[in-house]
């Protein structure tokens, strides 16, 4: 099957497409892309499910949740979220993901591709589009938080790869800045302005 992808920036009008893509499970485990957005004191286990959906919908309506949707022949098939690092406050509460220049950094912390469309380059197309969008917005430093597959492994479960994988980000020009033996890593790419 060859995909005819159209990638669009999320707007309030596109909420129904995001809702359809995320489905009854809210992408995964009732997350609704709220995990990294939770403020101090908001616990994921209390929020996941309908509350997370309401929170995400409100952010989308106010234009405060940013991301890109991939469509194949009009069907929403993939999502990547992006935004200023400060819009994902939970990143700073993960000791291994902290940094000392967070105000100057943009983040690409989560992907969700419809299960029938995985393994066909949708996440790749979304990451490339995210970099273009961020460059246009004047972002200078972009971070990802990909998972390092255990030594010797190439694949990890798709659900565990929601932040992407380390080889995937390195292949797209990111540098490994916070090296850990396993789990989520911090990677960065500097974006130069195109003339
Ligand atoms: C992980 C995920 C984003 C990958 O999307 P995808 O569209 O299949 O990825 P692509 O086809 O663009 O592949 C990009 C690269 O990553 C690699 N890759 C993809 N899934 C992988 C996995 N599970 N383990 C290791 N590598 C993986 C591919 O081999 C490819 O490598 P290559 O460029 O060297 O060929 C997708 O499986 C997914 O959405 N999983 C569920 C995540 C989730 O639950 N998100 C919501 C959280 S609430």
UniProtKB/TrEMBL annotation:
Source organism's superkingdom?
Answer: Bacteria
* CDD domains named among the record's database cross-references: NAT_SF
Q: Show the Pfam families listed in the entry.
A: Acetyltransf_1 (PF00583)
Q: Which residues form the N-acetyltransferase domain?
A: 5-192
Q: What protein am I looking at?
A: GNAT family N-acetyltransferase
Q: Which organism is it from?
A: Pyxidicoccus parkwayensis
């Amino acid at each position: 099957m060859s995909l005819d992808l159209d990638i669009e920036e999320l707007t309030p009008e596109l909420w129904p497409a995001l809702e359809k893509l995320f489905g009854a499970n809210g992408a995964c485990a009732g997350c609704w892309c709220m995990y990294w957005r939770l403020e101090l004191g908001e616990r994921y286990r209390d929020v996941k499910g309908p509350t997370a959906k309401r929170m995400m919908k409100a952010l989308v309506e106010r234009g405060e949740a940013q991301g890109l949707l991939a469509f194949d022949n009009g069907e929403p098939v993939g999502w990547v979220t992006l935004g200023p690092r400060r819009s994902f406050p939970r990143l700073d509460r993960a000791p291994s993901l902290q940094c000392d220049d967070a105000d100057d950094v943009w983040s690409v912390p989560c992907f969700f591709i419809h299960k029938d469309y995985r393994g066909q380059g949708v996440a790749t197309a979304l990451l490339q589009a995210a970099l273009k969008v961020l460059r246009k917005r004047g972002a200078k430093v972009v971070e990802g938080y990909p998972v390092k597959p255990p030594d010797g492994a190439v694949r990890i479960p798709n659900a565990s790869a929601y932040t992407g994988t380390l080889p995937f980000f390195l292949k797209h020009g990111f540098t490994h800045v916070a090296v850990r033996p396993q789990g989520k890593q911090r990677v960065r790419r500097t974006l130069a302005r195109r003339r």
